[in-house]
Amino acid sequence: MTSLLIHGGTIVRPTGDERADLLIDEGTIREVNVRTTGPRKLLAADQTIEANGQLLFPGFIDAHVHFREPGMEQKGTMESESQSAVAGGVTVVCDMPNTNPPTVSIAALKEKVRIAESIFACDIRFFFGVTQREHLQELQRLCSDVSLAPLRARCCGVKLYLDHSTGNQKVDQDIVHDIFHTCAELQLPIVAHCEDPVLNARAAKLNARDDIATHSVIRAPESEQRAITTAVEIAKETGAHLHVAHLSTKRGVELIAQAKSDGLSVTCEVAPHHLFLSTEDYEELGSFAKMNPPLRTPDHCEALWHGIENGTIDCVASDHAPHTLEEKQVSPSLKAPSGVPGVETMIPLLLTVAAGRWPHPQHRAFAPKLLYTDIRRLCFDNPNRIFSLGLNMIEQGSPANLVLVNPEEEWELQGSHLHSKCGWTPYEGWKVTGKATVVGRW
Question: Which residues belong to the active site?
């Protein structure tokens, strides 16, 4: 392996930017030579990247992906979706349990880890699913059996579906409190898909329409809000760490802010599609804009951006959920599966906002504020801490898990040029500013 010098890049740190030269050898950062006004040490390597004007980040984390393997390889595989992740600057992902078979047993987790061991594109961690009591028993054995410690190290938390979504992994309501108690004891975060099954079922029963916009009516904002309220109450009772997945409503942001103010161990994430798309996009995108929770009206989008600005929202995670074009193009469109790809487009979309631009070609109601340090906080620092991923900062002796960003490069998102196996994106034709390239990892 040849040595690599990244010359003149600017490291984006939580405390401020730092211009430096980085020497990488055998996959490790050997030197971080901070540039000062005085004499500086000259470094040499077999290969040099001139990085003046470019930004250096730790490899970004996407803490919510559905890589579909095993069981749904026609949509995506760990290999194809990892290539998509790295093409977007993401080097670590946390994969959800709704595969076939679902990751609700030690055997299923072991098989996923086995597949992932042959994937070199990115580091894949896994959430454990619990829908029935025997799954909870498996989780307890995973965390108590010393011989399973290497397997446990690949598990980043527990995923809880409070209502059905893709994969139909809705939890048995009789064991929800037990799951929270167990996770509190095991010090495992619970990632909750917060939609209320009673409200959703009632709305679906009353619905007589089949147009795609009805999806946002059937799974209304009140459904998310009630589920978050319930989950926060249980977290308060049990002391478990609750992480609310793909937050989508204004009231949801307020509930998370209140929980934090009350001193509870509650965090949350938002998906790019809830930041950049709204119900106004159904006419253009049809079923390609269908996901759970669904798109909301623009006022909810604005509230999510404010939640990022004031620190209520901890992470941005893509909820990358590829489906084939054929599946998405069914008629009526309301029958299409929920989910959109996003692991490759998440960072470019955020970089565009940090560059002071807005990528949506049609709809813009306000101007969100986002700094490059915010992207690091949302897509590295916070997910690394919340899910105990143990990833290193950019420092001497650390693995060279780096992303070099050209903040001025302009390009166009095209599904046919992206790397996900599904071959499409809801952001088709959008102009973005900022290109992320993974360097020094291999």
Answer: 319
Domain coordinates in residue numbering, the chain: 4-53, 59-392
State percent of the chain over pLDDT 90: 90
Write out pLDDT tens, residues 284-320.
999 999 999 999 999 999 999 999 999 999 999 999 9
CATH T-level topology, domain 59-392:
TIM Barrel (3.20.20)
Q: What is the secondary structure of 211-231 as a DSSP string?
A: SGGGHHHHT-HHHHHHHHHHH
CA distance 387 to 314: 12
Residue 200, pLDDT > 60, answer yes
Give the Å distances, CA to CA, from 280 to 248, 284, 338.
Answer: 15, 8, 18
User: Alpha-carbon distance 32 to 11, whole Å?
Assistant: 10
CB atoms within 10 A of CB 100: 12
Tell me how far CA of residue 415 lies from CA of 104, 340, 430, 433, in angstroms.
Answer: 33, 12, 11, 17
5, 44 Cβ separation under 8 angstroms: yes
Give the predicted TM-score (pTM) of the model: 0.96
